[in-house]
Structure prediction request, 279 residues.
Amino acid sequence: MRTALSIAVGMALALVAPAALAQDTTTPAPAGDGTLPPPKVTTKTTVETPAGAKKEEEDPTSDHEKVVGHFGVGYLGLTNIPIATGGPTGTPAPQNVSAPVIGVRYWLGEKIGLDLGLGLGLTSSSTENVSPAIPGGTLSQDRPSVFALAIHGGVPLVLAHRKHYKFLLIPELNIGFATSSETPNPAPPGTGDISRSGFHLDLGARIGSEIHFGFIGIPELSLQATVGVFARRDAWKVKQDVNNQSLSASVGATSFGTSVQGDPWAIFANNISAIYYMP
Prediction:
């Protein structure tokens, strides 16, 4: 009898214990005033990434790769072409005619491109004197007109490039011509016009970088800064026919040096240029 009663009590405890344990784990203990504490609330904060920044991270293409196969237009350098001054009976002195070179750059591939540019310079003027001492009261005279032409060619090579810039080596050639003609006034009998001319040639290479503005959403716009080393040849000449004889005087000079030379500010004036690539 006692054994049967012990078995019945054990089975009852086995059935009641799991229910009690489950109630203890799911029901929080009441507070001192008998109320239950508020349930826990989990807050999730979501930070949105701007669409532009996300696109920048997802686009692995560099700015340079985006302009391959496109034409760029910009300032490719300033060529000063010499021209003679004075007459044919002495040593002519040179003066420079400015012919800024504007041209195009086209990237044939990721590593090589082509630069072609043209510079023009044209000046003409006249003087007019009004005085009772002058026969007719007025004396008009044309001053020498000057024409200059510069041709630029280059082969930019990309040594390395990253997301927004590239490191360049640019072998290049510049050729320039200048001419001028003046009619002496008054002209002695047998005296012809005075012809002046100039020639410029430089051959060398520049090295530097081209920075694209893709970091502000304009990969088509770039700024190039370079320095270089060139061999130069300049010549200028004066010629005039006097009494059926041709008189002339000429000077030639050859030099080798850097593009900045002795003026450090020339790197900003002569060697920094902007290029805009067509879409």
